[in-house]
Design goal:
Rossmann fold, elongated, alpha/beta, 9 strands, 10 helices
């Protein structure tokens, strides 16, 4: 596909990429890595994928380590109660064997690979290559990673780096409130605020404005077959009933009427450039107790002010810039200094 050459085409192209990812279109992204933390969980993004998958008659399988409340149409493979990783792989294979197209969601990739000992390559080959389905894995970036006890693995890459290398799409979840606060700080040339565990404060793991109910910000990186990545930031609001058609017989959800995921820069709260500071001043004004702006009368008076040495600039014959000075009675003329 040729690259868009104007802003409107670029917006349509970016929304089309995210729409295909959410709707689980074939070969859009075989392995999607979702990065979240306590300040913004990936649950709204995963719920939207589940709804759109079930509306298209896609088999949804959840390898659950954390989730307890799931939709009855979702096939659950309990990961927390499995004794070995082989048991989890066997459960996933059995759940996928009776359906043409499937969506496999793992809500904790760290526990899947590290705690249960599942080879990520084997899992990828099972879901993507053998059954030609879609794999979605969630990795919590604020999770404490235990160092390897073996000295031979001291220089081995971390699990997150391996997952990023294998992923065909990477989605980073951000809270809308935190994104807006960071943007307001940048516009005022102030340091961006930190939230949650990033503050370094003892006992702080989640900010008060975490998991904004208005929606979720998605920082997406799509990796094309050519190796060229495409990055964009989106805003996904919570879905409502009117966003979908009436479900067909035998399906829990109806198909999507119109795409409602948008680019973040199109969000009214983000595109508003008049960010208000603490003192009520606009983002591009200084917080002072007096007004620095000029009235029309003051501007006209400033234009009529004659600048120093302005007459010297009107001289002809290449003498522009010559200083004109008239000696007064109190001036003492020194002939010796003048000759030097």
């Amino acid at each position: 596909m040729s690259r868009p050459f104007n802003e409107l085409q670029a917006q349509r192209h970016a929304i089309h990429l995210m729409s295909n990812l959410l709707s689980i279109r074939t070969n859009t992204s075989p392995f999607t890595l979702v990065l979240d933390d306590l300040n913004q969980r990936a649950m709204p993004f995963l719920q939207e994928m589940v709804i759109r998958g079930l509306s298209r008659n896609v088999k949804v399988i959840l390898v659950s380590f954390e989730g307890t409340r799931i939709h009855p149409a979702v096939r659950q493979v309990p990961g927390w109660s499995a004794r070995t990783g082989r048991e989890i792989l066997k459960g996933v294979e059995q759940a996928m064997s009776d359906h043409k197209e499937s969506l496999v969601i793992i809500d904790n990739m760290y526990d899947t690979v590290v705690m249960k000992g599942i080879d990520i390559t084997e899992l990828f080959n099972l879901v993507v290559l053998k059954f030609a389905s879609t794999l979605v894995g969630v990795y919590h970036t604020d999770m404490f990673v235990q160092p390897s006890a073996s000295g031979t693995d001291a220089y081995a890459p971390q699990l997150l780096e391996i997952l990023k290398y294998l992923a065909t799409s990477i989605i980073t979840c951000r809270s809308l409130s935190h994104v807006l606060a960071a943007k307001a700080a940048r516009e005022r040339s102030l340091p961006e605020p930190t939230f949650g565990m990033a503050t370094g404060a003892e006992g702080i793991v989640q900010d008060l404005n975490a998991n904004d109910p208005r929606g979720i910000v998605l920082e997406a990186e799509f990796r094309r077959k050519s190796g060229r990545p495409e990055s964009e930031t989106y805003f996904l609001r919570r879905a409502v009933t009117t966003d979908y058609h009436q479900p067909l017989q035998g399906r829990p959800f109806g198909t999507l009427k119109q795409e409602f995921v948008t680019l973040l820069r199109q969000h009214p709260a983000y595109s508003n450039t008049t960010a208000t500071g603490v003192g009520g001043a606009a983002g591009n004004e200084m917080e002072t107790s007096f007004n620095l702006a000029l009235t029309d009368k003051q501007k006209a008076a400033r234009e009529n002010v004659v600048l120093p040495y302005f007459d010297a600039q009107k001289q002809e014959g290449g003498e522009g810039g010559r200083i004109l000075y008239d000696m007064g009675e109190e001036d003492d003329f020194d002939e010796e200094e003048d000759e030097i």
